[in-house]
Amino acid sequence: TINLTNLTSYRVIYGDTDQMGVVYYANYLRWFERGRSEFLRQIGLPYANIEAAGFHFPVAEVTCRYAQSARYDDVIEIATTLVDLSRVYLLFEYKISHQADQLTLATGSTKHACIDREGRVKRIPKMLADAVELAMGNSRD
């Protein structure tokens, strides 16, 4: 089982909120993306490098369960965990919390297909599998 996690913090800006100062629901999905990007950067393989090699990982499935509202100027923590890396997809889970008290704001997941530039489903590239394996080895040290 894969269980690699990246923690990223973010301060909620006014543009993330609605008229009531509450974060607009779709922004949680943007924060999932931010967490994925930082996760890949953490394992030494920024998404730009994956794209340069001819691979893309579009979202095939997403879930988000909202528990509490984030508000303007809150500092949140995005915990992004790679939980599965199959032959052709990645599965991430997320937990968004207030950084100060770790109160859970939302949880969710995204499943990503691996495709080439023409949109054909492909095997997970070796460079990604190797980066995950190396990061898992380093996280055990």
How is this fold's topology laid out?
Elements: E1 4-11, H1 27-42, H2 47-52, E2 55-56, E3 59-66, E4 75-85, E5 89-98, E6 104-113, E7 115-116, H3 126-140
Antiparallel strand pairs: 1-4, 2-7, 3-6, 4-5, 5-6
The strand order across the widest sheet is 1-4-5-6-3
Rg (CA only): 16 Å
**Low-confidence runs:** none
Beta-strand segment tally: 7
Largest sheet: 5 strands, antiparallel
Q: What is the typical, i.e. mean, pLDDT?
A: 95
N/C terminus separation = 17 Å
Protein structure class: alpha+beta
Compact description:
With 141 residues, this protein is an alpha+beta fold. The protein has 3 helices and 7 strands, in the order βααββββββα.
How does this structure look, described?
The longest helix has 16 residues. Helix content is 26%, strand content 36%. The model has no long low-confidence stretch (mean pLDDT 95). The protein is an alpha+beta fold and 141 residues long. The radius of gyration is 16 Å and the shape is globular. The protein has 3 helices and 7 strands, in the order E-H-H-E-E-E-E-E-E-H.
